[in-house]
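Lecture 7 notes: from sequence to structure.
We start with the chain below.
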Amino acid sequence: GQSVTVDVNIPCEGTVADGGIGSVVVSGTIVPGDHCPTLTSWLITPQASGAADPIDVTVSAADLDSGDTLSYAWAAPAGTFTNPSSATTQYHCGPTGSEQLSVQVSDNHAPIPCTTSITFPAVDCL
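Predicted structure tokens for the same chain:
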């Protein structure tokens, strides 16, 4: 039920005089019965902080597939996370400015995991 945007580069060796249209074949793997993780709640507090005071970040996620183990990967263009692979961690600001925090939640489903990515409103690093 989700869509993904994918950039495809098609190198051309030259042009065709008739300018005909080409075709693209896309192959994918559908894993019957696999559900992607769903973010159920999140908290980022405070929304602004100095370098000495961390920002608490927490997400909760669920997966309808029994037996799937969820993993987390926090990211930001600058600054650091105390434990970037935990659902609950702290973000430590880098340079002054606004930073977009994001997290990827993967269900580690075999043979192909499903990953949900979320980007939050920017926090202010003072």
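Points to note: The first strand starts at residue 38 and ends at 45. The chain has a mean pLDDT of 83.
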